[in-house]
Fold this protein.
Amino acid sequence: MYKCKEELFMKIWKKLLCSAMLVLGCSTAFAKGEDFSKIMLKDVAGKEYSFGKMKKPTYVKFWASWCPVCLSGLEEIDNLSKEKKDFEVVTVVFPGKKGEKSAVDFKEWYRSLEYKNVKVLLDEKGELLKLVNPRVYPTSVVLDASSKVQKVIPGHLGKAEIKSLFPMLKMDKKMDSKMMNDMMMKDNKMDKMMKDDKNMKMEKAGDSKNEKKKTM
């Protein structure tokens, strides 16, 4: 009896897990390629921040004040933010949405944490929420230098994992470039083959006309 219940529980758990992964996968696929470059938000100090202004790849962390996992990772983000690196680091919260505090309450609460280096942006209108729609907190987003979404990763990432995303981004870009070059080379070869074939047909047609003239 106990064994049957255990097997039933495992089946239900697997179905739930598969459903969750499917939902997250769809969300990730939907967000890829979205453009953040026209989005301008204010941070907790009231300063404006425009994505893409620095023309550098950017790591974006979506989080919430009620999320224990998010809070446990803030110290690493704070440390990463002050390090010298070739990418930007920003975090985003959604005041008044998805259970988050109001903007006023969030600012007051955040000041008590005393993190000096983390850039926390307030998306009060939910502009990024519409583009990415994170289903899990925290969720990480990797933007390229033009502020287009390249990766969406649900769940916590440590500092080392975040750093590892950006060499991978460069590799992806190189692979994309190589694929484009390969496609162009194939297209050029195809064009050449078509031109050669056309020339051969024209030559044959010319030879045929000459032979007819000779017989006449």
